[in-house]
Amino acid sequence: MIRIGILGATGYTAVELIKLLLRHPEAKITVLTSRQQGEPHVASIHPALVGRLDLRLRDLNPQQVAAECECVFSCLPHGASAQVVKPLVEAGVRVVDFSADYRLNDLAVYRAWYEDTHCDAQRLGRVPYGLPELFADQLPGAPLIANPGCYPTSAILPMAPLLKSGLVEPAGIIFDSKSGVSGAGRTPKLTTHFPECNESFAAYNVGKHRHNPEIDQVLGTVAGQPIETIFTPHLVPMNRGILTTGYATLARPVTEAELLEALRAAYAGQTFVQVVDHLPATKDVSGTNFCQLTARLVRGRVIVVSCIDNLVKGASGAAVQNFNWMYGFPETTALL
């Protein structure tokens, strides 16, 4: 069994990851890290794990983590993650990184959007982007995989096949996304305080959300030309889930049936992407690693709709999917 470490084990994505890995026949969780004082037991942080995992959260340096693990999932925020990932990879530990530190290929773009330097900039552009439905050939044996952002997953999956097949124009693409509150993380914030967000619905970070360059980069890679999208996120007063609606212009005359067929052909044999005829809802994929998506043709415009669970397909489920590809296990292990 592969000895697993989880860095930053107090958050929502971490507990989802632990639950999945406890079902994985080839994984054994040996290390959980946190900077909390007193080495709390994991069950005191995540009561759902009472009786399921007997480990304490420890504040360990990369060398100590490397001594006890063969693979690490880093749930640390951007900036902090790369500082730990770099020495781990150099020590021969494989890593699936949840942060944005290795998703972007261009250092200038990273600095512009994240307003930070990068301690491992020489790796940018050399780390596989962990969306197996598009880049599975890059994942087996990879020492480091950049786990995608939740919003980008929901935007890229429905639009990529249409761009790749030349059915939609690369200019003027718009994504409108709604996310549950867990997407903001577990750390308390005024905007996610219950009286502030309950019975309310609001856009945020309009024109400046950090997932926008990630969406542009990946869709540009698929399309083979630069892509600039407009991405607007919204906070919805529900616990989990993302619904994304994308808008694009037809590049040539096609029918709605042809759009759906293009999506089905692109994801034929892909377990976790379901092209459906109905309009999907977040409850349809809650707690699963599935993405449900569909397309409509309205007045010469293409409208795509997709749904994922932001904590599973948008984070921890995708990470386990990437772990399976990294080590050559069946892709669905622990995910069905």
Can you offer a commentary on this structure?
Helix content is 30%, strand content 21%. With 336 residues, the protein is an alpha/beta fold. The strands form two sheets. A seven-stranded mixed sheet has the order 8-9-7-10-13-12-11. Strands 3-2-1-4-5-6 form a six-stranded parallel sheet, sandwiched between helices. It starts with a strand and ends in a 9-residue tail after the last helix. The mean pLDDT is 97. The protein contains eleven helices and 13 strands. It has helices spanning 12-21, 42-45, 62-68, 80-90, 107-114, 132-135, 150-164, 194-197, 212-223, 256-266, 312-327, and strands at 2-7, 27-33, 57-58, 71-74, 94-97, 144-146, 173-179, 202-203, 229-235, 242-249, 273-275, 291-298, 301-308.
